[in-house]
Amino acid sequence: EVGGEDDALLAELLVVHRKREDIEPIPSLLERRVALAEVPEVRIGLLVELAEVRANERKEPEEAVSSLREALEIDPSHGRAQSVLDALVREAARQDSLALLEDASELLLESFRKANEPQKMPSILELRIGSVQDTYSKGELLRQLCQLFAEELAQPKEAFATQRRLVLLEPGSESSWDDL
After folding, report:
1. 108 or 7: which leads in pLDDT
2. 180 near 164, Cβ under 8 Å?
3. Torsion angle, alpha carbons of 33, 39, 41, 43, to 10
4. What burial letters (b/e) apply to 145-158, b meaning 16+ CB within 10 Å?
């Protein structure tokens, strides 16, 4: 097989295929480079690059999320990985791809939690709230958002406003009124 286990040769093959705009072999070449990468920062960079190729050029968003999951397991606060994942979440919301939205947003929220960046979480939760149709799921997401505002972000006005939305969504539910 051309390329073997020589990272420099694999890198050169990537350059050739990119110049030719031959996208088909690029993911497998990047996967082989990831397998060879010993330095975490290099591995993450290759995984993010692989995710970008899968998301943007190959239109394989689920596979892109998989690559980003691996990158964020190494470094949950990696900005470029979070940014690519954020773009995938927003695109999934635009296209009403609920399964992808749920998977990608959960990964992104987990990354924000591990990186101690709760301030980035409300917009992702709002995307999910806006996308789900059933009252139960929407209520659970509103509860998460309310708790986030109240406990982690110390924003009581936002917590109250979110709790109000929950009461309006579930007017007959006692639990919706409990914390109001």
Report:
1. 108
2. yes
3. 20
4. bbebbbeebebeeb
Confirm if 55 and 42 have CB atoms less than 8 A apart. no
- The structure tokens 């929220």 sit at 109
CA 24 to chain centre: 24
Cα dihedral 164, 91, 14, 33 in deg (nearest 10): 30
Tokens of 59: 């239109």
* Residue range 30-76, pLDDT digits in tens: 999 999 999 999 999 999 999 999 999 999 999 999 999 999 999 99
pLDDT in tens, 122-179: 999 999 999 999 999 999 999 999 999 999 999 999 999 999 999 999 887 666 555 5
Tokens of 47: 């995984």
Closest CA to 145 of 126, 171, 168, 169: 126
pTM: 0.88
Q: Report the SS3 class of residue 133.
A: coil
Give the pLDDT of residue 178.
Answer: 58
* Cα–Cα separations (whole angstroms), residue 79 to 111, 117, 138, 170: 10, 11, 28, 37
The whole-angstrom separation of Cα 89 and Cα 104 is 6
**13 and 3 in contact (C-beta within 8 Å)?**
yes
